[in-house]
Write a structure and sequence with these properties.
Elements (H helix, E strand, L loop, with lengths): L2 E4 L5 H11 L4 E6 L13 E5 L5 H11 L4 E4 L14 H29 L2 E6 L12 H21 L4 E8 L7 H7 L10 H12 L7 H13 L6 E4 L1 H9 L1
Length: about 250
């Protein structure tokens, strides 16, 4: 029976991806900053571990506790929604430490076992805003676009070891905690000169009926892990698929 380690499982994409793999008889190691046993169904095939992807010791402890795994899904991330002028450099660093450096650090931590076994799968969850940019998301987009480039280069250097790397690119997911997380970093709201512009952008987004559901992302991750013929980049969600097809 194969084992997958998924980061950021307390809600949204990570939680539903963990459920998806559990339903298909995988061993699942679900990690989150503050472990909660109530967010996933009880199962002998489930282990919940604490993990802060910005903390090197936390990464070491989680990987050691997990033991051998077959798949790593880098899903942990935070959102930030604001004009650049309203985004402090402390917030920029926080976003990159989680979304970018955290993904890279987790990948480095599991690579030795994958390389030695000459087998393994890594799936990095980024965003369709890296395909079609949107305003007020410049810092978030940059943090995810960096992982796109990282993944594409890494995939080439891991080919000799038979380790496959994929990207899953979700679209807008209003039913997840992304909005709440993004608002938590908006300490003073939008700078006044951008307020009217921001309201127009929000109104435009509300007019779009195409969205991404957590299950869309879970299915895309499953495909990345189990379909050797799938492309490196997999859009997830009706809106993300539409963006990718329009390129």
């Amino acid at each position: 029976m194969k084992t997958v380690l998924i980061t950021g499982c307390s809600s949204g994409f990570g939680r539903d991806t963990a459920r998806h793999f559990l339903d298909r008889d995988w061993n699942v190691i679900a990690t989150m900053r503050t472990p909660r046993e109530d967010v996933l169904p009880r199962s002998a095939q489930l282990r919940v571990l604490p993990l802060d992807v910005t903390d090197p010791q936390s990464i070491t402890d989680a990987v050691d506790a997990a033991g051998p795994i077959d798949v790593l899904v880098n899903n942990a991330g935070i959102g930030v929604l604001n004009a650049l002028e309203g985004t402090t450099m402390d917030i920029v660093r926080t976003v990159f430490e989680t979304n970018t450096q955290g993904t890279i650090a987790m990948t480095r931590a599991v690579l030795p076992q994958f390389r030695e076994r000459r087998a393994g799968r890594i799936v990095n969850v980024t965003s369709s805003v890296t395909l079609k940019p949107l305003p007020l998301l410049s810092v978030y987009t940059a943090s995810k676009a960096a992982i796109n480039a990282f993944t594409e280069s890494l995939a080439l250097e891991l080919q000799p070891f038979h380790v496959r790397v994929n990207l899953v690119l979700p679209g807008r997911a209003p039913h997840t905690a992304f909005g709440d997380n993004a608002r938590s970093l908006m300490h003073e709201g939008f700078p006044p000169p951008y307020a009217d512009f921001a309201q127009r952008i929000f109104a435009q987004l509300q007019q779009s009926s195409a969205i991404t559901l957590s299950q869309d992302v879970a299915e895309a991750v499953w495909r990345a892990v189990n379909d050797p013929s799938c492309p490196l980049r997999i859009p997830a969600g009706a809106d993300a698929v539409a963006v990718a097809e329009a390129l």
